[in-house]
Amino acid sequence: MNLWLLAANSIAFGGLLFLLSAGFALIFGLMRIPNLTHGSLFMLGAYFGVSLISWGVGFWLAALAGGVGVAVLGGLIERLLLRRLPGAELAQVLVTLGLSFMIADACLMQWGGDPISIETPAALRGASRVAGVAFPTYRLGVIVIAVAFAVVLWAMLERTRLGAMIRAGVDDPMMARAVGIRVPLLFTLVFCLGSGLAGFAGVIGGPILSVYPGLDQDMLPLALVVVILGGSGSLVGAFVGSFVVGVLYNFGQALLPELAYVVLFLPMLVVLVVRPAGLFGRSSP
Amino acid sequence: MANEALRLADVDAFYGDSHVLHGVSFICGEGRLVGLLGRNGAGKTTSINVVMGLLRPRRGSVAVYGTPVAGRPPEAIAAQGVALVPQGRRIFRSLTVRENLAVAARKASGDRQKPWTLERVFDTFPRLAERRKQYASTLSGGEQQMLAIGRALMSNPRVLLMDEPSEGLAPQIVAEVMATIRRLKEEGLSILLVEQNAKLAFDVADDIVILNSGRVVVDAPAAALVRDKVDLHQHLGIY
Lengths: 285, 239
Known about the structure:
The complex is a heterodimer of chains A (285) and B (239).
Chain A: H1 3-31, H2 38-54, H3 59-80, H4 89-111, E1 127-130, E2 133-136, H5 137-159, H6 161-171, H7 173-178, H8 183-209, H9 215-230, H10 235-255, H11 260-274
Antiparallel strand pairs in A: 1-2
Chain B: E1 4-15, E2 18-29, E3 33-37, H1 44-52, E4 59-64, E5 67-68, H2 74-79, E6 82-85, H3 97-102, H4 118-124, H5 126-130, H6 141-153, E7 159-163, H7 171-186, E8 190-194, H8 198-204, E9 207-212, E10 215-221, H9 222-227, H10 233-236
Parallel strand pairs in B: 3-8, 3-9, 6-7, 7-8
Antiparallel strand pairs in B: 1-2, 1-4, 4-5, 9-10
């Protein structure tokens, strides 16, 4: 096994995980909603992409449209269901878990049980040489996309008035409302954004992972580990956590395949016990 | 009734099963400063929370310039021109000083003479201007209080609710805060001021409302209470 290639693949997978987890981290951090449909939204985005591409839509447009479609669905889930369960974490867990099963069933009915691969967009096929080593071009592209999204999301959150309002809502939701910030609207917006990112990631991940029943339950634990490692509500945490998990997951599978999940979840347990807020999380709720 | 900035009528409020306000009624006239006094647990902060929409009253009405607001969400009440300087300041810790002010900005309603803007808040509180890029959590207690007041003013309120703005501050800072309150009153802002320190409240208030166990027991002009040497110790304890 070429270690360098393994490392590079880990980073690409980390980029994909960031697209998946950033939304999960924002939703969990701002709204304290453990959204267990997040993996389903990822899978649903991928299936949307499959259908769009089969109708002749280009890959990138399909990825965007898949993201938008899933964002709308996420907004509906927030407005119609989760909005009615404020602060009831157990109910939120059960509702989102139930929804994830329903989405899985619906996908099975609509798209069948066979894995469907999404073709790599033509421009990014083949390999590129980076520092003298051949590396799949598409995976490089995923890294670039993830970094670009990280920068844009970070700037939106840290450098705009909208982002400041979201952070104010995280700090003290009731006080934020008292200064006139429409926190419920922001919550819906964040939920749409987070869901849309997951859907977009699903299509982007298609050429690497393909789409299959169970993809949702494969991805959700990864997002959970990323957010617990990095700290909920922290984009920087989600970013670093994604690459850490990308490395652990890929190296674990390659070097200790029998113990891949131990390699993945053991660090999570340690972080939970030693530093419950995560590596970059806020210590106070 | 246009000269009534704020009216509470027969308000009952609960925290869970605990009945905190019993038929509370009082008025804050336009441009007046009402000092809301009472012992700990008398219902002062609860009254403020009811006005701001942070606690929904079970009975009774709250009106801002005649518009009923009881039961509406806080952001809607803020849009009616109510702003809050809360107990414990509750500044947004992970926002910079400038961001704390910017997120609360709202255009002045009507043709206000001197609307509050970022620049004007910084002119009023030069210490905040110096620290505009710092995170609010790094400010001293006095600076945080200035920020909480500035943040409330950024919404260009018609009614300002202040919950113990002197709490936990050094005497010199308290004097500064009280001077600010006086200036705001002179500009015509209607203010509801909750104070533990009755002397401070009597120094600035036009009217005094005293709560005891969630009921209004005194509602009178401050000057009249002073002139008649009304004994308030039974309601306030000894200061």
